[in-house]
Design brief:
8% strand; mainly alpha; 3 strands; globular; Arc Repressor Mutant, subunit A
Amino acid sequence: MPAKTVQLDPYLTGVLMRDLVGHDRRSAAFLVYLWFSAEQQNQAHNSVSISYQDLAESIGISKSAAQSAVAWLVRRKLLAVTKATVTATPEYEVLSPWKSRQGGWPTSQSATKPDTTSSRQSHRR
């Protein structure tokens, strides 16, 4: 079976990667976001249902790193999580807030990143 091609939004490598990996120091969060983006593209649904253990194994990170990455992406409003019941496997939907803004965000290296200060202020002490 031939490998499926995934189209990456230039924003992912132009801005989001540097923001999550460089500034936030959350490389696992970038890998999780990238994996969910690819999975969501390859499925007919807008959401992906997977356990933390399966997610961790699919990416090659620990279960706790997957949990932490998902929590960070939800906090940054880059991932939405829903559950039918408390014990159900979560459904994840990749969010792209830069696409909903008028004109979008520039993707060049000199691009100005969106203001994410408010999401980071709560963890400063």
